Amino acid sequence: MSERNISVTLKVWRQKNASVPGAFEIYKVDSVSTSSSFLEMMDLLNEQLIEEDKDPIAFDHDCREGICGTCSMVIDGIPHGKKALQTTCQLHMRSFNDGDNITIEPYRSKPFPVMRDLIVDREPMDAIMQAGGFVDQRIGAAQDANALPISKEIADKSMDAASCIGCGACVAVCPNASAMLLTSAKVGQLNLLPQGKPEKDRRALNMVRAMDGAGFGNCTNIGECEAACPKGVSLDFIAKMNRDYAVASAKEFFGVVG
Amino acid sequence: MNLDAKVPEGSIEQKWTNAKFNYKLVNPANKRKYSVIVVGSGLAGAGAAATLGELGYNVKCFCYQDSPRRAHSISAQGGINAAKNYQNDGDSVHRLFYDTVKGGDFRSREANVYRLAEVSNAIIDQCVAQGVPFAREYGGMLANRSFGGAQVSRTFYARGQTGQQLLIGAYHSLSRQIGLGQVKMYNRHEMLDVVLVDGVAKGIITRNMVTGKVDRWAADAVVLATGGYSTVFFLSTNAAGCNVTAAWRAYRRGAGFANPCYTQIHPTCIPQEGEHQSKLTLMSESLRNDGRIWVPKSRETAAKIRSGEIKPSEVSEDERDYYLERKYPSFGNLAPRDISSRAAKEACDDGRGIAPTGFGVFLDFADAINRLGRDVIEERYGNLFDMYENIMGVNAYEQPMQIYPAPHYTMGGLWVDYDLQTSIPGLFAMGECNFSDHGANRLGASALMQGLADGYFVAPYVIGNYLGAEIPVGKAGKIDVNDPAFAEAENAVKEKIEKMLSIKGNSTPRSLHIELGKIMLEKCGMARDDAGLKEAIEQIKALREKFWSDLKLPGSADELNVELERAGRVADHLEFAELMCRDALDRSESCGGHFRTESQTEDGEALRDDEVFSNATVWEFKGLDQEPVKHVEKLEFDYVKPGVRSYK
Ligand SMILES: Cc1cc2nc3c(=O)[nH]c(=O)nc-3n(C[C@H](O)[C@H](O)[C@H](O)COP(=O)(O)OP(=O)(O)OC[C@H]3O[C@@H](n4cnc5c(N)ncnc54)[C@H](O)[C@@H]3O)c2cc1C
Ligand code: FES
Q1: B193 to each of A35, B547, B581, how far by Cα in Å?
Q2: Which residue, B40, B131, B575, B609, has fewest beta-carbon neighbours within 10 Å?
């Protein structure tokens, strides 16, 4: 755990708002402790920029511990950087060397327009959830929680899907800007559980259609999304959703959607 | 200030039932005529917005993140309590009530705590129905773990991501209502003031964080569910955006602020390393189920560990001081948070800290790994061990974790009556932003419980009652945003923004926040005393002056301006911090997380003064240049007799 100070050179995308073009700018940051996080390095740079009467770099962040899904940069071409299973805020400067050049961009994806610098608009993802990412039940009308045993395997699998943090890295990395991984994680979480079964078909149909409607692209099984997902959500959920969707479409044809 | 707690009649078991029966109802056809504003989309806010929307009210919900799913509740790790007694280990509603009142060091309102314990079971039912994938046993039943301050296993969890799963559950329900058009969601909108028309809350002022536009919003009732204020310490376990602004603006408009000095410093966080740090990371309390906390018995050994001369594993058993097990044999490593934190501080102040800075103790899993195997530990805490390794660069399966207490949760908040209404009619406060249930110390896994209790199960009754009783149907939804009160509030917001932008000094908002944090941590942190608090008040005033004369802000008001947002929050923290210190100064006893060094027992435990302080202190704003007025709500203990809070 021997920490030291390093210098890095950043090439950062700067853009004042959605309606003006952006461009890269180069910044040098010195005396970055390797124990600091990537975002702490950005904080340091921003303090430096304010001192120099320049505009600090706008970026999204909140929890800074990899769970809220707010941070969203593309670092050296990969959303959340090249380290697997990590969000940008979990990335530490320990992973960089003195003198490194680092390129930092916003998510580049049609459904996510840039709002400023590294901040993009990710609201279309919420639209997908609003179309079916829930169990239709009244608050307060539930039966006793243990009245419905659920095997550990199913609960665990559902939890694997539910660990999606909605950061949008899967969309950002996909050449088609598809939101299949995100959508399938929610469909998977709920369709696996007995509580979600009654609306299984409806959910798959509505969420996939909402995804198409919100401007996300088609899935062509490239698989970049799984690699970029900081929570390791598996492509299997896409396969499962495709099955659910196919069954639901057939049932819809016969007018018996569940 | 009217501090009538409106505690319902009847025995403690009957109060909530009686209240629900006596509350006014709004008939289903009329509900859609009423509008409610909910600020916040955490467990309390999302829960309330979804529930009220589902009932048919017109709801507007606001949050500062880009999606309601990102509220700070998402980062809760360990679990949520409920009195299900699924473990058959002696739990009951009464025991959860008792533990919470005792855990809060007899500084909470019994009736509220009982209601919390009473609805706890329905919360678990609700979450399961929503599709929250709680941990389960092989037989398909829900699993439980233990948390500090309790001798039963009543904590439900979803890996180390319980808050995430509960919030996503609430977000499911909220999303459904948004999709149906019952709730209108406003992301990236920061509430900057409450609007009162003739003394009654009728709306809010927000700033659109993307365009900078300042807007007026009107409603028949306003709910604040805006979370806690631990970021007054700058470094805390909270998300970077957490702040006191909403609660503070309500206080400035006349809402009483209760017990601001009650803050929780959590014992198991990763120690601070350097000046660049922007947050402290919590290592869930659940780790204390299997980890043993220790420091070396001698200062010399501690020094050798700090310098790297020896490894912790080389310290023999009889050279180690498992101080919690030694001091509190019956609770051991699961002693409540306030007590564990102080014990860590005591050991480090004694020169036996083991982190490079001297401020750190070990949390050691070697015994548990020997006993249960690495697989079991990995299954239970894998993500936490990963998180630790990522931040510290150390593998905790092989070497003990280093931990130290960090600011984490705030028990103080807006004063509310039994109906969660602040002292401003029509303004409600739910979740961490109110003061209601945890007294002077919160037990682990009880904040999530409170957030959801308030949002799902209390909000629908108390908001319905307020609307039904106070606002005739003919007047519902008829508030005019052109009322002079809205104009006045909007102008005040704009003036503050302009003023901050016009200073053009040399100090960045972040640097001022860091300065404030240092003052607060040193003088209003784990140990407080008369002289230190008085000094802190003067230092805060000076820092506030520096803020208003030397602030440096880039950019303008009508654009996405992160530093402007930050500055506004720091400005409010700088006002609030003074009140916090005043409250800490006024409460010359020790209780729970509030430790006044002047008031301790011979063996260094918190010494309460029930004669004088068996109350909640509620502060009333009288202008920044005036002292706030102190009120008290006397606390009665009819069911849990205040005793010495012993965990020995
Ligand atoms: C790291 C960590 C771990 C924790 N673990 C546990 C645990 O295991 N068990 C447990 O019981 N508790 C735990 N807690 C505590 C618990 O998470 C919180 O107390 C609780 O989630 C607070 O919920 P809330 O709904 O009151 O507020 P929050 O979830 O903080 O939500 C606040 C909301 O208000 C909005 N908001 C705030 N100000 C404004 C404004 N001015 N304008 C517009 N919107 C605003 C925010 O956008 C957000 O939506 C933990 C806390 C932390 C920090
Ligand atoms: S800031 Fe929350 S996940 Fe990165």
Answers
A1: 39, 20, 24
A2: B609
Do B274 and B352 belong together in one domain? yes
On whether both B107 and B247 belong to a single domain, the answer is yes
Tell me, yes or no, whether A86 and A14 share the same domain.
Answer: yes
Q: Among A83, A116, A149, which residue terminates a domain?
A: A116
Residue nearest atom 8 in ligand 1 by C-alpha distance: B78
Q: What is the sign of the dihedral through the CA atoms of B343, B346, B352 and B356?
A: positive
For A85-118, how does the pLDDT look when each residue is reduced to its tens digit (9 = 90+)? Answer: 999 999 999 999 999 999 999 999 999 999 999 9
Query: Does one domain contain both A28 and A64?
Result: yes
Q: Nearest by CB to A17, from B392, B456, B559: name it.
A: B559
- Closest residue (by CA) to atom 3 of ligand 2? A66
| CB of B217 closer than 8 Å to CB of B204 | yes
Cα separation, B292 vs B332, in Å, equals 9
**Is the C-beta atom of A87 inside 6 A of ligand 2?**
yes
Check whether residue A57 and residue A141 sit in a common domain: no
B186, B60 in Cβ contact below 8 A? yes
- Residue B177 and residue B111 share a domain: yes
**What local confidence, expressed as pLDDT, does residue B648 receive?**
81
Which residue's structure tokens are 């005036």?
B626
Give the contacts of B98 (CB within 8 A, at least 6 positions apart).
Answer: B639, B640
Look at residue B160 in the predicted model and tell me its pLDDT. Answer: 85
At A75, the pLDDT band (50, 70, 90 cuts) reads: very high
- To the nearest 5 percent, what fractions of chain B are helix, strand and coil? 45, 15, 40
At B224, give phi and psi (nearest 5°).
Answer: -100, 125
Out of B75, B168, B210, name the one closest to residue A162 (CB).
Answer: B168
Enter the DSSP assignment of B458.
Answer: I
Is B142 in contact with A116 (Cβ distance < 8 A)?
no
State the residue range of the domain holding B520: 484-615
**Claim to verify: residue A131 and residue A226 sit in the same structural domain:** yes
Each residue's pLDDT tens digit, B551-599: 999 999 999 999 999 999 999 999 999 999 999 999 999 999 999 999 9
Rounded Cα distance between A157 and A193, Å, is 9
Q: What is the pLDDT of residues B525-555, one digit of tens each?
A: 999 999 999 999 999 999 999 999 999 999 9
pLDDT at position A116, please?
Answer: 98
pLDDT band for position A250 (cuts 50, 70, 90) = very high
Rounded to the nearest integer, the mean pLDDT of chain A is 96
Tokens of B587: 């409460």
* Spatial separation of the C-alpha atoms in residues A234 and B366, rounded to whole Å: 33
Q: Report how far ligand 2's centroid is from the alpha carbon of A165 (Å).
A: 9
Query: What pLDDT shows up at residue B379?
Result: 84
Please say which residue of B405, B435, B461 terminates a domain: B405
The count of domains in chain B is: 3
| Full domain range(s) for residue A13 | 5-116
Q: Look at residue A3 in the predicted model and tell me its pLDDT.
A: 80
Residues A165 and A220 in one domain: yes
Q: What is the pLDDT of residue B275?
A: 83
Residues A86 and A71 in one domain: yes
Write out residues in chain B with pLDDT < 50, as ranges.
none
